[in-house]
Structure formats: C-alpha cells, structure tokens
Write a sequence for this structure.
C-alpha cells in the first residue's frame, strides 16, 4: 500500500509512523506545507527506520507556486463574477450598497480586495489545489493529513472524499480520528460568528476612543480649519512616516515624499496633512497625538483621521454594520445553494475557506472598518471644503475606495490622485481587477477609483494598465530617487571575504523560514560572512530568539544600520517579499529569492527570471551561493542597473509630477483631470 501524507507542524511524528506500521505501508509520499526544516528531517529519519518503507519527498513549494500562478490568472474574473452574481433582482454589489453613503461595501471586502497580506485564503486554496494535482496524477491507497487550521483541514477532507479515497485519516490537532467518523462543525458554529462580531465591535470602539482622546488633546478643529487656504492640497499619509529630526522642531516632513514636498513648498502650494495611524516602530496612538500637537503649535496644517469621526457616527456605523451582516448571511446561503464555481474555485471543495473569508469580509474588523472609513472621509470632505485636490499613497486598500467614494458624494470637483509608491508583484492580487470592474459607468455600484492613478515607473505602468484603469499616468518614484545617485556611480568591485545579506520581510513566518534556510544550508559559513537585516517591524533578534538559534555562536552579524549601507557591503542578497530585491540590483548584488510551501511568493522581482536566482531547498541555496562566490552572475551589472531605471522613474527634476500637478490645476480653479 502507498500513502500520501500532507502535513504542517502540528502533530506528533509517532502518530504518523504508527499508521505506517499498522497498514504495512510500502511507500509514503510526503507533501510538506511547512518550511520547518527540522520537522521534515525528523519525519524522513523516522520513516527510514521503518523496514522496507520507501520515502518520496514531493516538491511541495514548487507545485503550490504553480497553483498560485493558475489562481492569479483567474482570480480577477472570479471575484468580478461573484460580485455581479444576481440574487433575485439585484447583484451582490447592489445588495451591499450602504444607504446614504452611495458605495457598495463589496469593494471593502477581502473577496474584492484579494489582499494576500491580509488573508491566507487564496494561498490555502492553492495548497488544496496542489494536493488535488498530486492525487489526480497518482493513485494513493491512504491519505493522511496533519493540518492545524480547521477550515483548511475540512477542505482537504472534501478533496479526499471527492476524489474517491476510502481511507482518510487526520492526526495531530484532529485527535487521530478517521475523518469519515468525524464532523467538522467550526465553520457553522456560533463561536465563529461571535468571534468576528467581537472583532468588529472592537474596531468601532477603538475608533471612538481614539476620536475622543484626539479631540480632547488637540482641541476643537474649528479654529484650525479656519486657517486653511483656498485651493489647498489634501495629502493623506501614514503616521509615523515622518522625519524624526524635523519633527523634534515641530516641522512636519513626510518620510515618503522627499523632494515632492519640497517642490510643492517652493511653488507655494498649501498642503493639509491628514495622518492615518499605523503600528510601526513601537509608536502608539498617543505618540501620534503628541507629534500632531507639536506640529499644530508651529502652524502646520496637520490632522489625525480619527478627529473626523463624530459621536453620532457610532450609532450609524453600528446600524449599517448589523444591516450588512444580515444581508451577507442571506447572500452566502444563496451562493451555497447555487454552488458558484470557477475552474480554480470549487465551492464544494473550498467552501470552508471561502466561507471564513466571507465572514471576515462582512462581519469582522474588515466589515466594520470599511463603514468607518466611509463615514470619516465623508466628514473630512465636508469640513475641509477648500481643497481642490487630494493626494494619497495608492496601495489599493479598502480605505482608499472609501476615500474616493466619499469624494464623489461630497464634491466631485475635487481631483483625487492615487500615487503607486512601492513596487508591485503579480501576486499582489489586490492591485489587479477584471476590466469589467474598472469601467466608470456612473452607477452607485461602480468601483471608487482615483481620478488619476500615478505609477512610479514604466514597468509598473505597463503592469497596472492590464486592468484598464482610467486616467493612468507615469510620475517619478519619489521614495526611490536615491537610487539614481547609486546607479550613476561606478559599481564597487567585490573584494575580500564574500558577504551574504539576508534581508527579512514584515511577515514573521517568512522571515523565520529564511533564517532557518540559511542556518541549515550555510551554517558552517565556509569563508562566507553572513549578515542579517530585519524589517523595521520584524527585528531579527526576535526571529533568532523564536527559533532558538544563537547568532553570536554561529558568527552571524545582525545589522541595525541603514539598508543602503548593508547593500553597499553585500555580494549576495537573499530576500523574500520586499523591495530590497530591486534595490540590491542597483548596487550590483546577485539576488536570491526563496520559495516556501507555507507562504506565497510576493517578491516584486520574482516575475523577472533573468535577474535573480530561485531556490527551494537547502541544497539549492548552497549550490547557488557557491556558484556566485565562484564568479557566476545572472547578468552584467550594467543590465541590472538598466532594469532598475526601467522599473523606477528616477528623474530628480520630477517632470512627471510637474505635468500632473499642472493638469490638476493646483494653483488655479477646479477642473477635470485629463492626462
């Protein structure tokens, strides 16, 4: 008999080996959904101790990544069709219209946004589809799963049952029970609904508390609003994205805008800053209030988003949210009956995952925040009524759609500019929509888009143009302009000890996986210096502590200096989901990107195979690093730098921004944007 074992890291190995011995398994195929190298090694070692047992380790990372690509090609159409699915006389989008706000909360949902940084649902579907691919290409007598996530667990059971497998077992968190004797109930129990509802109420309570504290500490806005000049530019940004040194003097300098803010200042364009608090760099909301207070004292026009949340909005948000919950329950029950399917999305198979995504979208934090943002931005445009343009960082979040919808409702003459300020990977599903959804029809259910979508380079412009966004244009990459200076200088000759820089991402499990990959592959160093640089929100010290590896005893260097200095020193950069991969090319580094079975490949360079090395296993990494140290490179450094200049628009004179600002007529009266 042969057995397929699908597992993550939530089980006892003895449970699995006992099953192998009980059924006298002759061949076992391992399909790991975890990147934990130690677990994989232990399983293989235990299997090798069983007499006459053949062990096959399937390349799960590669197979799952292939399924992600298939989903990527279909997801925009699937999402669009789901939103346009007609239930009775109305579409899903029409059912979810928010009274008085003239926007459909469909656009705030994760089903529409498809943001893989906010949900694992689409990657989990890819994992299930990958196992389906394996089963359909080979017959297995027994399938065993060790899956900690209950929705994914149930989806695998649906798969095994649908494919006609008679012997199905789950171990670990599923208590070793045969699944045909087990009922999965969490997806429909009251506890799941209550958990999401509790999260939604907490989001509303937090917003109200912040609003009360901000208004108490900063005082009434009426006096500050009187000082706003006509024809001002409203700039929506994040806190704490500011220059800390300038902030000490009470001067607001946005960390992301750099020369653009200077240009606007030279041309006497009045700016109003609206700051959205996010948790970054150990800052708390009270710190945001403290900074804004100091800015206001120095005459800066700075507001916090929560200042525009009214007391009465609490009742209105609660009513709209409860209404939305009731409607969404009705809609999903109908969709369940009709079995709304697509090639990569079978409701019968993926229902537990899709249902949880649906609940999160309309019940929980996501469902409540979309309504809150709609109310806040509606109040903002009503109270700051002297503005003619609104500029914000475009990352295709729900709050951006709420902003554009509120602008359309309050004052359509205001021009909104969404600045795509970061790099984009094709697996950033949330940046892409079916072309049927980007057509501006004038209907209440249309997607709320900015009047101008400003892209920071030729490659990004080409990529986003595939969604047929109206009024898309190219401007300079403000945050990456420093790369122009790097590219203009002769590249540094690599001499002495080779240096590998391991750059972490904002995701803990991904950073942990990359550290383990390096440790087990290159732990002996062999003359290689290994530097580790963590993301500002995910320090390397925390990662090493979690996996109980002592960096000092392994001669690892944790770098806390600027990333540019780290790149200047490095020969090779090993990087998961971060823009550092593009920046590394400007410094002439060879870039290595790992693929893991427990996280989606989100690196923006991953779509350009000629400019990086892809690795999956510890053997791959050791082999590639050895070749690079020996002198191998994917491309000449000049080609790397040419690619960077094509990726980012690095003209320091900002002609693109100058033309755009002229078109939106910042200095004179209102007019429609024509790019």
């Amino acid at each position: 008999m042969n057995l397929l074992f699908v597992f993550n890291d939530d089980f006892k190995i003895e449970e699995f080996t006992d099953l192998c011995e009980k059924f006298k398994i002759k061949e076992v195929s391992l399909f790991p959904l975890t990147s934990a190298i130690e677990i994989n090694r232990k399983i293989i070692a235990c299997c090798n101790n069983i007499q006459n047992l053949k062990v096959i380790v399937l390349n799960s990372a590669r197979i799952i990544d292939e399924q992600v690509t298939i989903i990527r090609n279909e997801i925009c159409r699937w999402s669009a069709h789901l939103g346009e699915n007609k239930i009775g006389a109305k579409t899903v989008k029409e059912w979810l219209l928010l009274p008085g706000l003239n926007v459909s909360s469909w656009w705030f949902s994760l089903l529409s946004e498809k943001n893989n940084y906010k949900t694992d649902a689409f990657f989990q579907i890819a994992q299930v589809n990958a196992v389906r691919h394996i089963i359909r290409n080979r017959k297995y007598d027994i399938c065993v799963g060790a899956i900690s996530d209950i929705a994914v667990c149930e989806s695998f059971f649906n798969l095994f049952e649908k494919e006609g497998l008679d012997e199905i077992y789950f171990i670990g968190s599923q208590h070793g029970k045969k699944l045909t004797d087990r009922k999965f109930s969490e997806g429909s129990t009251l506890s799941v609904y209550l958990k999401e509802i509790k999260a939604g109420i907490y989001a509303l309570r937090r917003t109200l508390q912040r609003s009360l504290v901000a208004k108490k500490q900063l005082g009434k806005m009426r006096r500050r609003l009187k000082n706003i000049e006509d024809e001002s530019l409203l700039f929506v940004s994040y806190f704490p994205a500011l220059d800390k040194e300038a902030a000490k003097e009470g001067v607001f300098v946005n960390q992301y805008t750099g020369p653009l803010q200077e240009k606007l200042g030279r041309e006497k364009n009045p700016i109003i800053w609206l700051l959205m608090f996010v948790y970054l760099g150990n800052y708390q909301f009270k710190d945001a209030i403290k900074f804004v207070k100091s800015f206001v004292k120095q005459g800066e026009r700075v507001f916090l988003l929560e200042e525009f949340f009214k007391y009465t909005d609490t009742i209105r948000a609660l009513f709209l949210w409860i209404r939305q919950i009731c409607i969404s329950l009705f809609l999903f029950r109908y969709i369940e009956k009709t079995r709304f399917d697509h090639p990569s999305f079978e409701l019968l198979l993926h229902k537990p995952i899709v249902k949880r995504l649906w609940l999160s979208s309309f019940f929980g934090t996501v469902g409540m925040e979309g309504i809150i943002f709609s109310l806040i931005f509606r109040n903002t445009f009503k109270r700051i009524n002297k503005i003619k343009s609104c500029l914000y960082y475009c990352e295709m979040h729900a709050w951006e759609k709420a902003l554009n919808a509120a602008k359309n409702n309050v004052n359509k003459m205001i021009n909104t500019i969404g600045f795509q300020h970061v790099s984009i990977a094709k697996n950033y599903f949330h940046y892409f929509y079916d072309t049927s959804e980007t057509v501006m029809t004038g209907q209440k259910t249309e997607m709320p888009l900015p009047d101008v979508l400003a892209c920071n380079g030729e490659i990004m412009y080409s990529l986003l143009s595939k969604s047929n966004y109206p009024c898309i244009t190219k401007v300079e990459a403000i945050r990456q302009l420093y790369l122009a200076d790097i590219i203009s200088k002769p590249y540094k000759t690599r001499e002495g000890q080779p240096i590998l820089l391991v750059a972490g991402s904002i995701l803990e499990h991904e950073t942990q996986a990359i550290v383990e990959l390096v440790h087990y592959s290159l732990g002996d160093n062999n003359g290689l210096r290994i530097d580790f640089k963590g993301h500002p929100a995910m320090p390397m010290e925390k990662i090493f502590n979690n996996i109980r590896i002592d960096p000092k005893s392994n001669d690892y260097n944790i770098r806390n200096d600027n990333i540019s200095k780290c790149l200047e020193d490095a020969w090779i950069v090993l990087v998961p989901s971060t823009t550092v991969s593009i920046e590394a090319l400007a410094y002439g580094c060879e870039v290595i990107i790992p693929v893991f079975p427990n996280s989606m490949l989100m690196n923006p360079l991953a779509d350009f195979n000629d400019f990086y090395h892809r690795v999956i296993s510890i053997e791959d990494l050791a082999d590639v690093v050895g070749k690079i140290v020996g002198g191998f490179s994917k491309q000449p450094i000049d080609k790397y730098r040419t690619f960077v200049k094509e990726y980012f628009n690095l003209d320091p004179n900002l002609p693109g921004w100058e033309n755009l600002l002229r078109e939106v007529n910042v200095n004179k009266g209102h007019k429609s944007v024509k790019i």
Summary: The two ends are 66 Å apart (CA to CA). The first helix runs from residue 13 to 22.
